[in-house]
Specification:
Blueprint lengths: L1 E7 L2 E7 L8 H10 L3 E6 L1 H4 L5 E5 L1
Antiparallel strand pairs: 1-2, 3-4
Length: 60
């Protein structure tokens, strides 16, 4: 849960929000990118890119 505190006209208010999140599988992201008109998808894995997560590059 994320908490936030903000100054609202001289006094403080707090709020809390929750959400459900899941990572997209590569095939799901490929399909969504294709449906949005992206082509030439190329995945760069951590071993290749040095970044800790896979990176996708596409053209539109």
């Amino acid at each position: 849960m994320a908490d936030s505190v903000l100054d609202f006209y001289g006094h403080w208010e707090t709020s809390q929000h929750g959400t459900v999140y899941r990572a997209l599988r590569r095939a799901e992201l490929d399909a969504a990118l294709g449906a949005a008109g992206f082509t030439h998808l190329r995945w760069h894995l951590p071993e290749e890119s040095g970044f800790y997560q896979p990176v996708v590059i596409a053209r539109r």
